[in-house]
Structure prediction request, 550 residues.
Amino acid sequence: MAAASEFDTDTAVERRAEGRWRGEVSDRWDVVGGAPNGGYLLTLPLRALAAELDRPDPLTATAHFPEACGPGPVEISTEVLRAGGHATGRAVLARAGDEPGRVRLAVTATFGDLGAADGPTNVAGGPPDVPPLEECVDPAASGVEVPPIVGRFDVRLDPSCLGWAVGQPSGVGRIVGWLRFADGRPVDSLALPLLADALPPPALNLLPEVAWAPTLELTVHVRARPAPGWLRAVFTTRYLVDGYLEEDGELWDADGRLVALSRQLALVRTPPDGA
Amino acid sequence: MAAASEFDTDTAVERRAEGRWRGEVSDRWDVVGGAPNGGYLLTLPLRALAAELDRPDPLTATAHFPEACGPGPVEISTEVLRAGGHATGRAVLARAGDEPGRVRLAVTATFGDLGAADGPTNVAGGPPDVPPLEECVDPAASGVEVPPIVGRFDVRLDPSCLGWAVGQPSGVGRIVGWLRFADGRPVDSLALPLLADALPPPALNLLPEVAWAPTLELTVHVRARPAPGWLRAVFTTRYLVDGYLEEDGELWDADGRLVALSRQLALVRTPPDGA
Prediction:
């Protein structure tokens, strides 16, 4: 039997009692600065909710991040708000040992069955224009020190979006690239919220120095179950206002179908001595 | 003393006990089909959370709509997940008399103080190109029967987006117009989530007949406190897939500043005999 994938291992949750789950936040999904990726953290309560609601696809999931949450054991409390059909639940996550009432992460999600969706279709636009794989940059092979999360994915980035990496931000808040799991795990609808937060923030192209862009809230709409293969991703920040920004994402599958839309609200902090 | 505005009257909530609030859903904000507008419903728990968290601006608020909620008294239960700074809370709303555990609406929001925001700014793009007010259409004066919510606002819509109203949908999922409260109440940051759901859905331009587009989830980012005067609004639906669609909104104030971004996931239902 094949070993469990990194994603499945590191997002596994175990039911301890009615609405009580346990998981373990891994340090393998840390981003720059040493904190676990927000889309990764979101996935643990999302898996608990998927099991409680017994529906296959997280049509829309929102996470708020009241406090940082480092690696280690976590406790998840779930509530079913509506069962069946479009099923809605919410969850909070705390670190094991946190005092009662402390919350690191709050998630609300509505699940459904995209396999049974049969309404009308009318799509304006298509996948982003990404250069061929062999013309893109592999951050893991660039010789630059990269955070652990980069090792979890095969990533190929459009070089025209990478000015920030050599101290020359393009001024355009856009990152485009190819994406899949490094260990070959297929991307399913439960993995899309993580992939919707897996590329470097486009705000890196808007500022001479960005120390950190913590996410206040992340919402992902899963629009279709992905076909096997590479996903194409585009992330855009158009409005950086007084330190707050949105980051809009689209993920498209190998068949050229939109599979996820994402939007987050984040806060840019520049270093005290930043230009 | 001036009478309270329609908005303030119809979104008032009263604290009954620790984390327990009472409100009254009015029928003045009903949309086509007879249900209260989703942005209006969201505002009642949002006002309870604003009071509990004691922070002025809902930076990001998400509502899920597990069940329809008609007019009448409602009970709201709030929880503070983090106080101070970026303060996060969540709430559920039920109709008075609902059996315990039944939830019509679930809201999570993170509040802050936009008056104290002082980070960097970098804005790509500007307000939508809306024809002058006098060239736009006032739905309330069109002679067409309109739902109650239309009376709550002064609305002027770009005529090029109104083909659906005369049986000729443009095929482009876009609605553009001017917007303010009809009774002159200034639009503040607590009113923006309602305004972000106040225009007709752009999906009306994508289908020959749309019976109903119930919202599964609505998220609004409040990005600035609006200047007095008309707001310009643009709402877009690019991806209608198997009956699910996103609706993206932008609201811009009279000074040409972005004040809110919104996105919702909705479901299109066509009539059984629809073309």
